[in-house]
Amino acid sequence: MDKDELIAKLKRMGYLKTPAVVSAFQRVPRADFVPEEFKDRAYEDEPLPIGEEQTISQPLTVAFMLELLVPKAGQTILDVGAGSGWQAALLADIVGQAAKKKGKVFTIERIPLLVKMARKNLASYIKKGIVEILEGDGSAGDKKHAPFDGIIAAATAGVLPPAWKEQIKPGGVIVAPVGQSIVKLTKRKDGTFIREDHPGFSFVPLISEEK
Ligand code: SAM
């Protein structure tokens, strides 16, 4: 499969819908984020190894999560689990489209070698000031740059980290795996949450330093 065939397949299956998300999939080549030895499989709908026992997520899962998050131009998003940097680049492509207010993606990764990989893969976005990479435990969120319009995670926790619920703006959305379900939480003005669960996905664990 090539990029256009993958996008067409995800659209046909109903996973890719919103024009901004579709354009991001078109503009940000997954092949640029996949290690050399897997480049010929970059547009297969499957997770692929990126080293350190981690993976670049399956395109279908990324499409589904971005469609739930509904990122918009000019927003500030926290991306937990930078890995290869592909999802952060897709987000940067979307939030970076605003003419007036500059959007920003803060992406956190705990494994130093992957931080290095993400930094290299995201260099053009970092240079433009749309992406900042942070090294550390994303389960604590990012107090310094909070509050966020959206928080998205690529690794699964047993329970959603409380810090994320504190660091999301009213009206903001958290999309994250809990167990093997994708959960969407929308924060109401009164601080409570509307929750949607979408079971049947598979994720690497969120490794938290908190005991
Ligand atoms: N979004 C990534 C991409 O586009 O390549 C997917 C990366 S992979 C599925 C999940 C990542 O989450 C791994 O790189 C892993 O090291 C990272 N991770 C796991 N626990 C973490 C934590 N507590 N804080 C930050 N990153 C974490």
UniProtKB/TrEMBL annotation:
EC category name: transferase
Main location: cytoplasm
GO molecular function terms listed in the Swiss-Prot or TrEMBL record: protein-L-isoaspartate (D-aspartate) O-methyltransferase activity
Enzyme Commission code(s) on record: 2.1.1.77
Keyword Phosphoprotein attributed: no
Keywords from the named record: Cytoplasm, Methyltransferase, S-adenosyl-L-methionine, Transferase
Subcellular location: Cytoplasm
Alphabetized InterPro entries for the sequence: PCMT (IPR000682), SAM-dependent_MTases_sf (IPR029063)
GO biological process: methylation; protein repair
Tree of life domain: Bacteria
One Gene Ontology term, aspect cellular component: cytoplasm
Family indicated by similarity: Belongs to the methyltransferase superfamily. L-isoaspartyl/D-aspartyl protein methyltransferase family.
NCBIfam families linked: pimt, PRK00312.1
Protein name: Protein-L-isoaspartate O-methyltransferase
Organism listed in the record: Candidatus Jorgensenbacteria bacterium GWA1_54_12
